[in-house]
Write a structure and sequence with these properties.
By secondary structure, the chain is α/β, with parallel strands linked by helices. Helix content is 36%, strand content 15%. It is built from 10 helices and 9 strands. The longest helix is centred in the C-terminal third of the chain and has 19 residues.
């Protein structure tokens, strides 16, 4: 039995295999309609979510399985003080696989140690979000056809953005990838990431506050929102929240095949005028998220 807590739990070969399965699901959806007949997914969401929770549920339903769970801590026994470990052990008796989102870093790992069934980390605090990274990787593969020889711009909240942290970890394993890290000084990537995944691996990276200046060299631009829920005080959030707003004017010198990604929800960091531009890939990402979660559920349930 295997869980997925961190993107590095998967080898690059396993990621390639998941992506191949995902591409096959897109090409032959009917082939997968009954792969999880009789299987149940439990969604334990201690933190608000639209896309992640619904895409897990849609993924399991499209595989022929069923879904149970809760969408906020207040509607679970956590409100009575039940531990994550006890909840996971209990839910193991009802379901075949768990998807868990939690505001505390490490909570899904604690759950996985006590669970009798596979646990998927659906986001833990500012730490990790491996299925969003798989979504991003499927999107990059479909848009670019490769993971090597890419210049990736990451823009916005690089300090608390768990999607950014997971994507850097994943992409740092491929050849000739360069990162351009665009953020206000207060929201630069954490030191451990800079050291372990960039400096120690001799990966080329640039840190800058200037989005427009680096635009012409980017193959991918990954936008993030400045997350109000990760700030300790309102004043800092208000000061930084509009640091980077992507507009068509700012993209005028970008490559014609630039892929603009965003984990969503968007607040105002991408102007709606970009939605109809062929370079906008963030709603394609939403679709890819459902597909890759279907592939992952099958893998962890060991469905052929």
């Amino acid at each position: 039995m295997r869980s997925l807590i961190d993107i590095l739990d998967l080898t690059t070969a396993e990621i390639d295999e998941l992506i191949e399965t995902g591409l096959d699901i897109i090409a032959n959806p009917s082939k997968y309609a009954h792969k999880c007949d009789g299987k149940k997914l439990a969604t334990l969401f201690y933190e608000p979510s639209t896309r992640t929770r619904l895409s897990f549920e849609a993924a399991m339903l499209e595989l022929g399985g069923s879904v149970l769970g809760f969408s906020e801590a207040n509607s679970s026994s956590a409100a009575k003080g039940e531990s994550v470990a006890d909840t996971a052990r209990t839910v193991s008796c009802y379901a075949d696989i768990i998807a868990m989102r939690h505001p505390k870093e490490g909570a899904p790992l604690v759950a996985a140690r006590k669970s009798l069934i596979p646990v998927i980390n659906a986001g833990d605090g500012g730490h990790n979000h491996p299925t969003q990274t798989l979504t991003d990787l499927l999107t990059i593969k479909r848009e670019k056809g490769r993971f090597d020889n890419l210049t990736i711009g990451l823009c916005g909240d690089l300090k608390f953005g768990r999607t950014v942290h997971s994507l850097i970890c994943a992409m740092s394993r491929y050849e000739n990838v360069k990162f351009v890290l665009i953020s206000p000084k207060e929201l630069m990537i954490p030191e451990y990431l800079r050291q372990e995944y960039l400096i120690d691996k001799n990966i080329v990276f640039v840190e800058t506050t200037d989005l427009v200046g680096v635009m012409p060299e980017l193959d991918i631009l990954y936008m993030t929102r400045v997350q109000k829920e990760r700030f300790f005080n309102e004043a800092d959030y208000l000061r930084l929240k509009d640091s980077y707003i992507l507009t068509l004017d700012k993209m005028k010198d970008s490559k014609p095949d630039l892929a603009v990604l965003h984990p969503l929800p968007r607040v105002n960091e991408i102007a709606v005028e970009i939605d109809d531009d062929p370079r906008a890939c963030y709603f394609k990402q939403v679709f890819n998220g459902k597909i890759i979660r279907m592939a992952l559920i099958m893998k962890l349930l060991e469905v052929e």
